[in-house]
Specification:
Elements: E1 21-26, H1 31-39, E2 45-50, E3 64-69, H2 73-85, E4 89-94, E5 104-106, H3 112-124, E6 127-129, H4 133-140, E7 144-153, H5 156-167, E8 177-184, H6 194-205, E9 212-219, E10 228-236
Parallel strand pairs: 1-2, 1-3, 3-4, 4-5, 5-7, 8-9
Antiparallel strand pairs: 6-9, 7-10, 8-10
Helix pairs in contact: 1-3, 5-6
């Protein structure tokens, strides 16, 4: 099992990102989703609703395209294929997705804006223990399927307990990769100590050895002062 050991403290520096992450809505019922993603305020993310493949042509600096559709999957798949063929990490939140057009497609994605936020948040916010696009790419590139989970708690221990309860409904032996992200409000919560991290480390150590784990700790100053948030991005070829 791969464990995350490197750390980067970005207290006084945040690298500016190009708009290299795209969220592309296709078909009916996606405008509200795109507007919700825009409201996250991530500077590195470009959002649009596409009417044809001509509306979104891959650019040299594109790194990831998230395709969202509730219908018109033929157009969604065609747009996804242009990005996938261009070597862009292509993620599908699409009913009737053609897996050959995507690196990974979401399962159990009823709250689409929340799934998108889970994918983008660690890339668009500062990290205490860094998690970057290469980590997300390792988790999702050519993995076929992915699933996300979020658990909140008043401490890391509470968050871990709540996540373990949610994991009871997951077929763990089908998981190949997990990206595990802890979030806290650094303006309202004192620094996390190694002792605080013990329940999280124990949970990671208790996962099957067949699962590769990448983890990080990020800041989310929208959280209330008594909340720790734990997000999982899990992938595999047969979830």
């Amino acid at each position: 099992m791969t464990r995350r050991t490197d750390s980067g403290i970005l207290e006084n520096f945040q690298q500016p990102f190009p708009m290299s992450f795209k969220v592309i809505g296709v078909g009916n019922g996606v405008t509200d989703i795109i507007e919700k993603v825009k409201s996250f305020g991530y500077d590195c993310v470009g959002c649009l609703v596409a009417k044809s493949t001509d509306d979104c042509i891959p650019m040299d600096d594109d790194k990831m395209a998230i395709i969202v559709a509730r219908d018109n999957e033929e157009l969604a798949n065609a747009i996804a294929k242009t990005y996938h063929d261009a070597g862009v990490l292509t993620i599908g939140l699409v009913n009737g997705a053609d897996i050959s057009c995507y690196d990974s497609i979401a399962i159990d994605s009823e709250n689409i804006p929340e799934v998108i936020r889970i994918l983008l948040a660690p890339l668009a916010t500062m990290g205490y223990i860094c998690y970057d696009f290469n980590d997300l790419c390792t988790t999702l590139h050519n993995r076929r399927f992915f699933k996300t989970l979020v658990a909140d708690g008043k401490s890391i221990e509470d968050g871990v307990i709540n996540m373990q309860r949610k994991m009871e409904n997951v077929t763990v032996d089908k998981i190949e990769f997990i990206s595990a992200l802890l979030y806290f409000n650094r303006e309202k919560l004192s620094a996390i100590t190694m002792d605080d991290m013990a329940p999280f480390n124990n949970m990671m150590s208790g996962l099957p050895e067949s699962i590769d784990v990448i983890w990080g700790v990020n800041f989310d100053n929208t959280l209330s002062d008594d909340i720790i948030r734990l997000s999982f991005i899990m992938s595999g070829r047969e979830l």
